User: Which sequence fits this backbone?
């Protein structure tokens, strides 16, 4: 599969001629700006030990990691070929004459034809179709063949920088923070952070890096001390993702309740909070609490106080709406029925008994595993104590039942 | 514990390869899914930034769009990886001399090395698409599949509407 490219001579790699023989330099200079990219369908050799051939280079009809990449995804033979042997669609994209592209591959002179300058075989093909949507998430390129994979997680910028296929000279990762309010346009903002090489490439280094977003959010300028400093990036294509993490329904719990205290009591006060953990990168969280009855406290804080709870037997519903990073809205609610003062005292007593019983049983278990001469109670004494506590619990529950009868 | 150096390439039980750089107690990585081919990191690809403390590394990670997923989160791990070495790339001329263009099958003995004079191993250029060689509307020309039997696992249409899985010419 072939095409013709009118090369952007203002954005040629600065090292294009480095390493070329003088003859090649002259030939390339004469033949530019026209280049003839050629994508190979299959590119491999027979495998004598297996029915599966060995792929040596990316091909457009090879699949997965062996396929030519089109806007970063394996092409996987997803091509519509019409009767005039032209490709009307590639991976769902309709290529258009004059459309802007980035082509990666080996630069060669084809000895078989009129010696055209070719990118052959093509390793990756990018249709430059990023939209001006004020979103720096996506894939970016620079003049010198680096690719920048960018994810903006609520103002934390994560980035991987790689060289083209077969070039393992340099690879780095970056993490930084985007300046300004997330609710304003990204144009003109700066992401400042740290970069460090990873051994996907041979080079070793680390340092500071800043990315300044251009007016249209389709260009960025790099500064700092990295090998890509002073380069201008162009956005190649957008990526779709889910900006709001899936937190589900929020869980509401009472804040720091003392053991065996039941504050859901008529006339009492309760403080609620959200126990659902928030994701990293949250830079703003707006709370909106409501209570169906009772006297609400400040409804915009991470915790919410409801006082003067209503008469026993009343259903109380506490709800919250949480908006994180001015974008993602989550909700949760919790309902409970208020107790009378007497009920709460009984519940407290039963709870205390239960805790004592649990402690005693744990003691019995511990002593049966690690008997120690200095233990305050022998195993038999502990069992007797547990039996007494169980009887006391039975009595208390029976008395509670009698008192709660209408 | 600070002298423990995790820098290197690691294989993990999620099938991924992790290119780790430890700088003091800071640990960074680029994680690539294994896509069983020449290129990895296409199913998922992530960046991690964390701290080594005792026998544990903990920190935050986010996917980057080399892969097909865009998740993020926090994680802690103790290393149970296997160290690897970056396999060296064969010189391109050597690859060209072994590569049968457009077919795997014997009988097509011509290799890329026979027909192509390498100017530069890997080049990235920007530009605009010109007219196609066979159709003024569409810039891409496709004269393949060639005269060989092969099976494709992905959709391909020929002549507009015909959809085939196996091509035999």
Assistant:
């Amino acid at each position: 599969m072939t095409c013709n490219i009118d090369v952007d001579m203002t954005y040629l790699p600065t090292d294009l001629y480095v390493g070329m023989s003088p003859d090649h330099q002259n030939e390339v200079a004469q033949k530019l700006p026209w280049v003839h990219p050629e994508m190979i369908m299959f590119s491999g050799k027979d495998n004598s030990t297996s029915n599966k051939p060995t792929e040596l280079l990316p091909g457009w009809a090879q699949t997965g990691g062996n396929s030519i990449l089109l806007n970063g995804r394996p092409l996987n033979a997803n091509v519509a070929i019409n009767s005039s042997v032209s490709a009307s669609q590639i991976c769902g994209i309709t290529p258009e004459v004059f459309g802007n592209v980035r082509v990666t591959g080996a630069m060669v002179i084809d000895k078989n034809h009129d010696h055209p300058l070719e990118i052959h075989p093509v390793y990756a093909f990018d249709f430059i179709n990023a939209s001006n949507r004020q979103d720096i998430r996506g894939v970016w390129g620079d003049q010198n063949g680096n690719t920048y994979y960018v994810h903006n997680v609520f103002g934390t910028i994560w980035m991987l920088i790689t060289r083209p296929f077969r070039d393992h000279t340099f690879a780095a990762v970056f993490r930084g923070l985007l300046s300004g309010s997330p609710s304003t346009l990204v144009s003109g903002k700066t992401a400042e952070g740290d970069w460090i090489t990873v051994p996907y490439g041979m080079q070793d280094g680390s340092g500071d890096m800043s990315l300044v977003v251009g007016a249209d959010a389709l260009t960025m300028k790099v500064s700092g001390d990295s090998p890509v400093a002073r380069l201008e990036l162009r956005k190649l294509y957008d990526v779709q993702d889910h900006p709001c993490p899936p937190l589900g329904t929020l869980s509401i719990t009472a804040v720091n309740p003392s053991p065996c205290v039941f504050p859901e009591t008529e006339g009492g006060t309760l403080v609620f909070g959200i126990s659902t953990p928030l994701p990293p990168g949250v830079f703003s969280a707006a709370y909106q609490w409501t209570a169906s009855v009772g006297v609400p406290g400040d409804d915009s804080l991470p915790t919410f106080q409801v006082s003067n709870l209503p008469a026993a037997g009343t259903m109380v519903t506490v709800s919250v709406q949480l908006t994180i990073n001015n974008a993602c809205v989550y909700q949760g609610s919790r309902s409970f029925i208020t107790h009378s003062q007497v009920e709460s005292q009984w519940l407290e007593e039963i709870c205390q008994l239960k805790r004592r019983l649990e402690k005693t049983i744990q003691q019995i278990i511990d002593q049966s595993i690690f008997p120690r001469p200095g233990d305050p109670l022998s195993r038999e004494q502990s069992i007797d104590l547990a039996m007494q506590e169980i009887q006391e619990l039975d009595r208390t529950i029976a008395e509670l039942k009698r008192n709660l009868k209408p | 514990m600070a002298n423990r150096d995790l820098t290197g390439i690691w294989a993990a039980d999620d099938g991924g390869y992790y290119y780790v750089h430890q700088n003091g107690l800071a640990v960074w990585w680029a994680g690539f899914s294994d896509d069983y081919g020449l290129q990895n990191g296409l199913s998922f690809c992530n960046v991690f930034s964390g701290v080594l403390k005792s026998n544990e590394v903990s920190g935050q990670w986010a996917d980057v769009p080399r892969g097909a997923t865009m998740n993020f989160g926090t994680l802690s791990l103790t290393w149970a990886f296997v160290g690897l070495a970056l396999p060296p790339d064969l010189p391109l001329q050597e690859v060209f001399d072994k590569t049968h263009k457009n077919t795997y099958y014997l009988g097509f003995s011509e290799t890329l090395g026979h027909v192509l004079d390498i100017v530069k191993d890997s080049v990235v250029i920007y530009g605009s698409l010109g007219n196609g060689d066979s159709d003024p509307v569409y810039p891409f020309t496709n004269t393949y599949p060639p005269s060989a039997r092969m099976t494709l696992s992905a959709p391909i249409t020929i002549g507009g509407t015909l959809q085939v899985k196996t091509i035999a010419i």
